[in-house]
Amino acid sequence: MKLKHALFLAFLGVLTFSGCGIIGPLPERTYAELRIGDDGKIQLLIESDQWMGIVNPLRQGGNQHWIQEWYTLQGDGPIYDVSQDKAEHASDTGTITIDQEHKIVTLNIEVMPAPGSMLAQKKPNMWNGTYRITSVNHDPFYSNDNRK
Asked: Which residues share a beta bridge with 44?
């Protein structure tokens, strides 16, 4: 009986430290952050956090953080027109609505293929939707050069 108990505890230990089972990856939590610039510009970041277990086979566990998408907005809101090149093969067009009173932001954006690109047609941005604004701050604007 002691051997079975010891094996069961060892099995639970392996699950705990591998990030599987009981404390394995939890669903992603996706939210918005607004960064206010001195020049009147606003940067919207769509961010995600996910608990990956204490340790997992692919990388260190713990809370993983990603910036999924970002837009630098200018003008009077609450509805902002977006026309932004995101890569050499596509650009984003559409609207972003920021409701600071209710702390929500809504993305309604299409990815437009550049002329001659391999993308066949425009398609909805995968991050379209409504997100809760969790932070409004004056942090420096995000770019590929200063990844968190």
From this structure: 34, 71
